[in-house]
């Protein structure tokens, strides 16, 4: 927590009486995060001043759907379900793009339940402990085999055909007749632009989106995790 908060890391801890069943989904653990986002931190600080002990904050996407990374994407995703009294706070686009790393801290050693920007190596260097295999009994967001999926079919690591969408690093050329949805220059840009690119494919009413998955460890591993689940949907 000292090393990576505020930041894209969720810690799974034993719950106290403060975290009721409606927060934890009847589990004995709770996920805690301190976001590195100015407007979100201001909201938490103002809530704290009137006695708040934290905000129960589920993701702003419908179950299994692509996570929104801008306020406009939130409106597209859940706007129809909001009432006149509901507000959407616009703090600008997400800086990382993909969801936070989820780390289980209820065992002797940390366990990464969902990969993200904070990697196993970073966790090990911070704690001095070896990262263990994950405990699959703990239910966390995004750990189903199918998730993060647009309406279009997501296909990985093949040549795109005319009429299909295409997401790949900028070093990959776009074949004729293919809709280039994103051409990030590096893995960090890939993570930041991925979900918006998938949403753009649906906006264009494409039936399939081909993604050349980035190689490597760390953040690239987290991107592959999200895309594998999108492709399974």
Please, could you describe this protein's structure?
The protein is an alpha/beta fold. Helices cover 27% and strands 15% of the residues. The chain is built from six helices and eight strands; from the N terminus they run E-H-E-H-H-E-E-H-E-E-E-H-E-H. Strands 2-1-3-4 form a four-stranded mixed β-sheet, with no helix packed on it. The radius of gyration is 19 Å and the shape is globular. The model has no long low-confidence stretch (mean pLDDT 91).
Structural class: alpha/beta
- Looking at the structure, what is the overall shape? globular
How many beta-strand elements?
8
The proportion of residues forming helix, as a percent range, comes to 25-40%
Q: Main sheet: which strands, in order across?
A: 2-1-3-4
- What does the largest sheet look like? 4 strands, mixed
Number of helices: 6
Along the chain, the helix and strand elements come as EHEHHEEHEEEHEH
Task: Give the terminus-to-terminus CA distance.
Answer: 34 Å
Question: Per DSSP, what share of the residues sits in E-state strands of 2 or more residues?
Answer: 5-15%
**pLDDT below 50 for ≥5 consecutive residues: which ranges?**
none
Fold topology:
Elements: E1 9-14, H1 21-24, E2 29-33, H2 38-49, H3 71-78, E3 101-104, E4 111-114, H4 120-127, E5 153-156, E6 165-167, E7 179-182, H5 187-203, E8 208-211, H6 219-232
Parallel strand pairs: 1-3, 5-8, 6-7, 6-8
Antiparallel strand pairs: 1-2, 3-4
């Amino acid at each position: 927590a000292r090393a990576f908060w505020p930041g894209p890391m969720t810690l799974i801890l034993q719950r106290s009486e403060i975290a009721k069943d409606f927060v934890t989904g009847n589990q004995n653990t709770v996920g805690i995060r301190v976001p590195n986002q100015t407007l979100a931190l201001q909201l938490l600080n103002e809530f704290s001043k009137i006695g708040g002990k934290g905000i129960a904050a589920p993701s702003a996407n419908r179950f299994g759907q692509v996570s929104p990374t801008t306020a406009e994407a939130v409106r597209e995703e859940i706007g129809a379900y909001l009432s006149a009294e509901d507000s959407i706070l616009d703090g600008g686009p997400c800086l990382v793009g993909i969801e936070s790393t989820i780390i289980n801290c209820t065992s002797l050693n940390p366990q990464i339940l969902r990969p993200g920007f904070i990697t196993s190596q970073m966790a090990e260097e911070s704690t001095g402990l070896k990262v263990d295999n994950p405990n699959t009994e703990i239910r966390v967001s995004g750990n189903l085999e199918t998730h993060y999926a647009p309406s279009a079919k997501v296909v990985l690591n093949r040549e795109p055909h005319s009429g299909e969408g295409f997401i790949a690093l900028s070093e990959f050329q776009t074949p004729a007749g293919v809709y280039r949805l994103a051409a990030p220059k590096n893995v960090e840009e890939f993570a930041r632009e991925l979900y918006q690119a998938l949403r753009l494919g649906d906006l264009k009413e494409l039936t399939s989106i081909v993604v050349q998955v980035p190689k490597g460890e760390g953040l690239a591993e987290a991107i592959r995790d999200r895309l594998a689940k999108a492709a399974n949907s």
